């Protein structure tokens, strides 16, 4: 895991050897510790160089280790030995120094970077913070503003920028290791004290408070509801205001709070899910590692609408020559100008020259005879597409791959009109195609593995997150969208308003609720598709009940809105009203309210109060349910693929992990129970019927031998304080012992749904805590977090029971903050997070009980008559959202608009468009400070923390 060599007779060269990224796993930490000890004790050694094998310094802590119990030597003492040593240690950074890898370099006395290396602290994107001293050392080295920016965004910087900031001592175009060896020898004998970053004083700007306040406001706006950036700011504040050792303590307390949070789990899941999606697999057995892609040097794009233009740009900027085809001269010229403008702007932003020489524009399909691959992006009309494919089949050389950018039509029907069905596949880009990262690669029944491998590899080359999906109406993303949109409009019928539904979804974390997003995308496109598919318009049999189609519930309200010429933002009116066409500021419209009231009275619908919880459950559980159906149908290989599609294509909040992950966090049994409940209430909505596979999966899991084994194990440990009933969120005992039973897919991830789990316990004395402020004005951000948490508990306080042994809460559990596992207590004058006590169902006089893992009403509640007002209000995270403005792609094949997210041409995975929700849990104005005496949170003043 690390090689030790003596080179140049007096330099110890320590090479990290843990492919692929030399992550700091337990054996690597061991090896570094041993190697340093050896180097420091060997009199022949006068200096040390640390580098990484295969041109990669270090990708940081081994993220996979975070899912299990922490083993091996802790990282910080290993790194401290490097700094404390009396021999100069030089980090030779090639490739990357990220996270813990960057922190390792910061403990070295000198840093040399190869000119192509990238450095950064991306922990925040994983829901944690740089907890091996990164938050304390970087501000000391480069000052607060620059460190704050790097730590709160996770941005990777170049070697040149690192030199400019003072992070590295030298940048070389040569081998960094060779350069570092020379450098190390020259450093021998020079004083080491000034090189020890821990001894430096953080340059403290006079306006520190204002700076941190501005940073706080910025991250709250950019990533509302996300905890890690706020914790990062608190840690940086500590670097500015505390001595190093105290700052380190603060850093580790903050890390402990984040480490087991649901957000960290979700974000780390997203990291691996994205990489898993690249390892595609088909029902035929063909997969990423047994199918060879073809090299694509030239391509053609047919249609220069919004989608076509974006695809041309995506291809050209990675060096593929592109022939762009349009049907009319005017359209061609217009498309040409727009593509050139886009490429020029893109090149300017990236500091490269625009690859305009790769482009050719033509009106003739004949020009395509020699290209390697064609992507058709014409109007979403099967007859038209078939004509194009027939023509392509005649014109293109026999080996040319023919792909379609349809957003949901039958790819096999197109394959069928060609002479090469095995070379036909779908490449479903999301709008705008040069910005959006998602690509669904649609595998038809006749698509060859080579065709899929080529489309996947081309997607990767274009910088897309490509996911292989099956050929069914709407594929994966748009297929799931249909039931989601249906639920939203059914909820309108039943009594909700567009703004209420949007707010619930935005509080959950979506940047825009479904109605605001539909207004942005334009309502007319969906209306046209619904008319074409006979769901509305003159073709509908007048005898057909207005609220039924094909025996299923149908909501005609969206059609009625369109009939009034309300097409969304572009017409200044849609589900909302706008000051003028094109305006983005959505305001509730009394006319829509009237329309809804008239509609309800026309159909005799008694409006009822609908809770946010019902909105979230119906919209999101139905999404996951359709995901299970898709898995059962074999249209997606894994739940991760579905989640990746929703994260990158539909702006699902990343800190929620995706619809499938979210369902697993809630608990599949719970999701199934709620779906059954809603389906009973709405039997004419088939999408609410729980999918058999998931249901039987859950039943099977309950009967599994492996589960029996786990339960037997757990029961044998009965009475041990570290075994608790499973909250559906923690790591199960069997999993951490390597005996994961895989009946639930989530077990693959390490969060199991077995009944008993091993709970890593934390002594009360080590809880993240903060002094209770004397007055509200003393509020710190930590208190801010605590108070927010307290407020949240207060909202649902009737559901709490006193802890089983309040006099002796020796152990607490630092886990999911947002699934309400925690209460905030004042213990010995400090605010602490304390795990919520288990609920005793047998207690006769208790208030209504809830499942700790979710805040849903009890089974006997009806939608009309809810007695418990719990709402699933959680943090939210905005994503930039983009409408599909093109007619050729803005709608799914089933007649609904699809929601698409973009990254605003930015690589920042946490970036958002800044839409803030006033209802966000962490919003400043909702976070009024409660004095502990005013709160009904239990106050425990005199606990012996040593009990
Ligand atoms: C009460 C409880 C208290 C708890 C306290 C706990 C304290 C715990 C310890 C504290 C110490 C903290 C140390 C540190 O601050 C934390 C970290 O370092 S977190 C990690 C930070 N690093 C990153 O985020 C980098 C992540 N990786 C990347 O961005 C990219 O992989 C890359 C390095 C830029 C390389 O990109 P590519 O070349 O494109 O390659 P891939 O991305 O496809 O990756 C290849 C392969 O490697 C796997 N991988 C990458 N990085 C890691 C990693 N850090 N750990 C584990 N595995 C990693 C990746 O998954 C791929 O695997 P494959 O898919 O091929 O199986």
UniProtKB/TrEMBL annotation:
Q: Name one GO cellular component term.
A: peroxisome
**Which GO-annotated molecular functions does the record name?**
(3S)-3-hydroxyacyl-CoA dehydrogenase (NAD+) activity; delta(3)-delta(2)-enoyl-CoA isomerase activity; enoyl-CoA hydratase activity; NAD+ binding
One Pfam family, please name it: 3HCDH
Q: Boundaries of each 3-hydroxyacyl-CoA dehydrogenase NAD binding domain copy?
A: 299-471
Keyword annotations for this protein?
Fatty acid metabolism, Isomerase, Lipid metabolism, Lyase, Multifunctional enzyme, NAD, Oxidoreductase, Peroxisome
The entry's localization annotation reads: Peroxisome
User: Per the record, what are the reactions this protein catalyses?
Assistant: a (3Z)-enoyl-CoA = a 4-saturated (2E)-enoyl-CoA; a 4-saturated-(3S)-3-hydroxyacyl-CoA = a (3E)-enoyl-CoA + H2O; (3S)-hydroxyhexadecanoyl-CoA = (2E)-hexadecenoyl-CoA + H2O; (3S)-hydroxydecanoyl-CoA = (2E)-decenoyl-CoA + H2O
Stretches of Acidic residues bias are at 901-911
**What are the 3-hydroxyacyl-CoA dehydrogenase C-terminal domain coordinates in residue numbering?**
474-578
Which PANTHER family does the record match to this protein?
A: 3-HYDROXYACYL-COA DEHYROGENASE (PTHR23309), PEROXISOMAL BIFUNCTIONAL ENZYME (PTHR23309:SF49)
Protein's name according to its UniProt entry? Peroxisomal bifunctional enzyme
The scientific name of the source species is Labeo rohita
């Amino acid at each position: 895991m690390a090689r030790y060599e003596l080179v140049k007779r007096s330099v110890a060269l320590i090479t990290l050897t843990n492919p692929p990224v030399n992550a700091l796993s337990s054996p690597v930490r061991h090896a570094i510790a041993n190697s340093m000890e050896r180097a420091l004790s060997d009199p022949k050694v006068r200096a040390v160089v640390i580098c990484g094998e295969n041109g990669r310094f270090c990708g940081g802590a081994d993220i996979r280790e975070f899912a299990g119990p922490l083993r091996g030597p802790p990282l910080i003492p290993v790194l401290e030995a490097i700094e404390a040593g009396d021999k100069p240690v030089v980090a030779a950074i090639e490739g990357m120094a990220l996270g813990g890898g960057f922190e390792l370099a910061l403990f070295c006395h000198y840093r040399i970077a190869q000119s192509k290396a990238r450095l950064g602290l991306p922990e925040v994107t994983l829901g944690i913070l740089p907890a091996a001293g990164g938050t304390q050392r970087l501000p000391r080295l480069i000052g607060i503003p620059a460190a704050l920016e790097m730590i709160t965004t996770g941005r990777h910087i170049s070697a040149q920028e690192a030199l400019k900031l003072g992070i590295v001592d030298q940048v070389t175009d040569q081998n960094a290791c060779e350069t570092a060896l020379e450098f190390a020898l020259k450093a021998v004998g020079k004083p080491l004290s000034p090189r020890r970053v821990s001894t430096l004083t953080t340059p403290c700007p006079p306006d520190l408070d204002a700076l941190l306040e501005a940073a706080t406001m910025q991250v709250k706006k950019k990533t509302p509801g996300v905890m890690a950036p706020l914790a990062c700011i608190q840690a940086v504040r500590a670097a500015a205001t505390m001595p190093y050792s105290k700052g380190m303590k603060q850093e580790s307390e903050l890390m402990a709070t984040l480490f087991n949070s649901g957000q960290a789990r979700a974000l780390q899941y997203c990291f691996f899910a994205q990489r898993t999606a690249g390892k595609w697999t088909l029902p035929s057995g063909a997969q990423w590692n047994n199918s060879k892609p073809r090299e694509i040097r030239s391509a053609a794009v047919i249609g220069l609408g919004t989608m076509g233009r974006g695809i041309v740009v995506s291809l050209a900027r990675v060096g593929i020559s592109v022939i762009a085809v349009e049907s009319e001269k005017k359209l061609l010229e217009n498309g040409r100008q727009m593509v050139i403008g886009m490429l020029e702007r893109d090149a300017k932003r990236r500091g490269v020259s625009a690859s305009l020489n790769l482009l050719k524009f033509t009106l003739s399909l004949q020009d395509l005879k020699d290209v390697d691959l064609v992507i058709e992006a014409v109007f979403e009309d099967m007859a038209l597409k078939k004509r194009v494919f027939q023509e392509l089949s005649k014109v293109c050389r026999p080996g040319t791959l023919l792909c379609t950018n349809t957003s949901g039509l039958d790819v096999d029907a197109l394959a069928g009109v060609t002479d090469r069905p095995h070379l036909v596949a779908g490449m479903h880009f999301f709008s705008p195609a040069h910005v959006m990262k998602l690509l669904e690669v649609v595998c038809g029944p006749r698509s060859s593995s080579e065709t899929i491998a080529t489309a996947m590899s081309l997607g990767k080359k274009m910088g897309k997150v490509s996911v292989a999906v099956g050929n069914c109406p709407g594929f994966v993303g748009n297929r799931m969208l249909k039931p989601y949109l249906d639920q939203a409009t059914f909820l309108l019928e039943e009594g909700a308003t567009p703004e209420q539904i949007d707010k619930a979804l935005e509080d959950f974390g979506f940047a825009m609720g479904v109605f605001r997003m539909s207004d942005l995308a334009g309502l007319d496109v969906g209306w046209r598709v619904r008319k074409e598919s006979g769901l509305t318009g003159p073709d509908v049999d007048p005898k057909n009940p207005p609220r039924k189609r094909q025996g299923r519930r149908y909501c005609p309200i969206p059609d009625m809105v369109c009939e009034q010429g309300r097409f969304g933002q572009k017409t200044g009116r849609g589900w909302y009203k706008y000051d003028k066409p094109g305006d983005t500021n959505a305001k509730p419209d009394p006319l829509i309210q009237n329309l809804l009231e008239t509609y309800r009275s026309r159909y005799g619908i008694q409006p009822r109060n609908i809770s946010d919880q019902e909105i979230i459950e119906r919209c999101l559980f139905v999404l996951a349910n359709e995901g299970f159906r898709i898995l059962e149908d074999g249209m997606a290989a894994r739940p991760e693929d579905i989640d990746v599609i929703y994260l990158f294509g539909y702006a699902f909040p990343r800190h929620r992990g995706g619809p499938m992950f979210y369902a697993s966090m809630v608990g599949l049994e719970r999701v199934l129970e709620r779906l059954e409940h809603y389906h009973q209430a709405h039997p004419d909505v088939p999408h609410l019927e729980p999918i058999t596979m998931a249901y039987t999966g859950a039943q099977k899991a309950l009967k599994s031998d492996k589960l029996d084994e786990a339960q037997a194990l757990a029961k044998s440990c009965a009475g041990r304080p570290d075994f608790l009933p499973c909250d559906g969120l923690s790591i199960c005992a069997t999993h951490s012992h390597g005996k994961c039973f895989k009946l639930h897919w989530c077990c693959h991830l390490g969060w199991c749904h077995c009944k008993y789990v091993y709970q890593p316990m934390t002594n009360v004395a080590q809880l993240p805590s903060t002094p209770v402020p004397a007055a509200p004005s003393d509020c710190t951000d930590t208190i801010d977090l605590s108070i927010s948490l307290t407020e949240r508990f207060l909202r649902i306080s009737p559901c709490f029971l006193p802890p089983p042994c309040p006099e002796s809460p020796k152990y607490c559990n630092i886990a999911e903050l947002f699934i309400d596992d925690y209460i905030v207590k004042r213990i010995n004058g400090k605010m602490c997070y304390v795990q919520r006590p288990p609920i005793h169902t047998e207690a006769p006089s208790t208030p209504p009980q809830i499942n700790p893992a979710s805040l849903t009403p009890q089974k006997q509640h009806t939608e009309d008559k809810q007695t418990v007002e719990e709402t699933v209000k959680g943090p939210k995270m905005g994503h930039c959202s983009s409408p599909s403005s093109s007619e050729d792609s803005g709608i799914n094949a089933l007649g609904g608009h699809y929601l698409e997210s973009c990254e605003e041409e930015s690589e920042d995975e946490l970036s958002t468009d800044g839409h803030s929700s006033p209802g966000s849990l962490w919003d400043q104005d909702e976070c009024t400070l409660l004095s502990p005496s005013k709160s009904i949170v239990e106050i425990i003043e005199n606990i012996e923390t040593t009990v």
